[in-house]
Design goal:
Mean pLDDT of chain B: 95
Largest sheet of chain A: 3 strands, antiparallel
Low-confidence stretches of chain B: none
Number of helices of chain B: 4
Order of helices and strands of chain A: EHHHEEEE
Number of domains of chain B: 1
Helix content of chain B: 55-70%
CATH superfamily of chain A: 4'-phosphopantetheinyl transferase domain
Strand content of chain B: under 5%
CATH topology of chain B: Non-ribosomal Peptide Synthetase Peptidyl Carrier Protein, Chain A
Oligomer: heterodimer
Order of helices and strands of chain B: HHHH
Radius of gyration of chain A: 17 Å
Largest sheet of chain B: none
CATH topology of chain A: Ribosomal Protein L22, Chain A
Distance between the termini of chain A: 26 Å
CATH superfamily of chain B: ACP-like
Structural class of chain A: alpha+beta
Low-confidence stretches of chain A: none
Strand content of chain A: 25-35%
Radius of gyration of chain B: 11 Å
Distance between the termini of chain B: 16 Å
CATH class of chain A: Alpha Beta
């Protein structure tokens, strides 16, 4: 069947999708000689740091957020450069994470990001989809 | 300066003296991933009391460029 003959609901989406993923070792985000305050401040926003530090094992949440930021950077790498501190990963009341871009000028839209994060005791993983209309 | 940089790279990348040279890069060093890269950047910033730009951070993908950008930053 030709695409034009399909009902509107079955027509292929015109959006172009960009994906990014990342996996991190949780233990690399424990406080140590080379992961002090300056390291966390370079990567994470104050909101993210406050959130992670309320958790029993902050390193799991820092690792998950770092993986999320890497996944965002990879997903939009063909569109525009973003740095870790330009990206904020915040959970809503139900615990669902979302991406906010803190850059003053950007063509990327917050609502076009979809993100999923998960972690175990040892590993954190994130998957990001950016859908460009 | 060379010795300070070498010490930092050895600690972060867990490499021995023989591996540290100008050609060492993110491409040929398995341990030089994004987390290690940021540890190196922050380590250099603390050590030399400087701040790298995002452009510097993205450009410093090998030891040669790290030294060049660092010298430029210190002398600016």
């Amino acid at each position: 069947m030709a695409v034009s003959a399909l009902p509107a609901a079955y027509k292929p989406m015109k959006n172009i999708n960009y994906v990014g993923t990342d996996i991190e070792l949780v233990k690399r985000f424990k406080n140590s000689k080379h992961t002090g305050k300056e390291f966390f401040n370079k990567i994470f926003t104050s909101k993210e740091i406050s959130y992670c530090n309320t958790k029993a094992y902050p390193e799991q949440h820092f690792a998950a957020r770092f993986a999320a930021k890497e996944a965002v950077i990879k997903a939009v790498s063909k569109l525009e450069p973003v740095f870790y501190s330009d990206i904020e990963i915040i959970n809503d009341k139900e615990g669902r994470p979302s991406v906010t871009l803190l850059k003053s000028t950007t063509n990327l839209k917050k609502e076009n990001f979809s993100i999923s994060i998960s972690h175990t005791r040892d590993l954190a993983i994130a998957f990001v989809l950016y859908s460009k209309d | 300066m060379e010795e300070k940089i070498k010490k930092l790279f050895k600690e972060v990348l867990k490499i021995d003296d023989s591996k540290f040279n100008d050609a060492l890069s993110q491409t040929n060093c398995m341990n030089w991933d994004s987390v290690s890269h940021l540890k190196i950047i922050v380590g250099l910033e603390k050590m030399f009391k400087i701040k790298f730009s995002v452009d510097d951070v993205l450009a410093m993908v090998d030891v040669k460029t790290v030294k060049e950008r660092l010298k430029k930053k210190i002398n600016s």
